[in-house]
């Protein structure tokens, strides 16, 4: 769809439309859209009220974020005058996903660090530091990945004879430890974001706009696009696309379709599903319920046109025969539309769409492992090895046979209408071929299959895996790092942190009774090739 095109949601499937219509009527009768736009915190019940009371400012960001535009432009011009035109962004989840989709859509370069993979961070460090500014984005100001990137870049600047403080721009909430540190260290500029907006709803706050704007994206236009749809989204009437989308998701979920398969069908937006994934999964995946977003490459990818009764394909862009639901509109408008729809479906599912109660467990498990080097280093011995792939199998999976046989036994553990989650703690650029496993495994297993880079997905679908419908099976991929990086001032390296994150999340998933198969690639390239061959042997 072209910018400026009308923002709308279409339900083309007659049955789904009929089932959603009463939900839309009820939402209209309860004046949910108007109340949401007015910041009414009672929409999700008494248990959610105190949190919702400090989480609803995102509905008005198209107005309240305006003053940022001039500040961003001024800083960009100042940096350019000094020859600084390469922007690196350190931030996890809501602190990097929106700027990534904004800049990819506009085709402006932004190096995003939402990884602990030492090779990927080393590649970012190898860019021209004389021309580099790093935006350190963290709402809480305490996220370990982001803090590690800040430390590593500060040292690299200093080692290169560059004044590090002049190259660090911070986006954080007022009063966070990062805000205090930035002041103490005299960092170049601190953008304080609206604390009444949660991370995954923060696309149109400083978290989305500062890195994207410094990289050269037209962020004023994004606010214009959001402003263009705001009135429609606040209206308690049948023409409100957020009500249509929320009701479609709610009706499908009530019918057993708890997965939402997202494919771009020509929206003109690049990577929207990666952003929507966090919004939907972290907002809804809790208390044993929720919607599992499954981002796929194209409408032709396995899991979309051939989705079973447990999933609803959603076209981002023009509708297709395969997709009962399609959403259209320019990026700024789509951000706001999907945020409204997600908050509203939270009401239909009777959960609090603003907390993420199960994310902390994996962080704690990783911290515990980092504090216990013997356990981290030793780890469990692999159950078996097949060429460059070491196999750490869950209970119930025999490792007597080949890797293909192990995979077959593992996939057989999925319950009917369960799902497979592939989690690659690897380098998203150098090991990019790992992402091809999603389609191959989905095709061969017939399961809805998600793919996430670790630890990136921990801040996105990670909440759902632990808090949502408990019918997933988990394939973790870890790999021997070719290089490692010290984290200055910390007793661990980036490689150790990455390893602890994989093991820690694996432990938590296992405690939830979910099967976790970890495959460790002793040689990454050879291991991925070997694994792909084994997957191809798994019969369809
Ligand atoms: O901006 P922060 O505080 O660094 O958090 C990053 C991300 O981590 C989470 O808190 C969950 O892990 C997300 O909700 C958030 O977007």
TrEMBL record:
Pathway: Carbohydrate degradation; glycolysis; D-glyceraldehyde 3-phosphate and glycerone phosphate from D-glucose: step 2/4. Its EC number is 5.3.1.9. PROSITE patterns: P_GLUCOSE_ISOMERASE_3. One of its GO terms (cellular component) is cytosol. It comes from the Bacteria. Belongs to the GPI family. This is Glucose-6-phosphate isomerase. The gene is pgi.
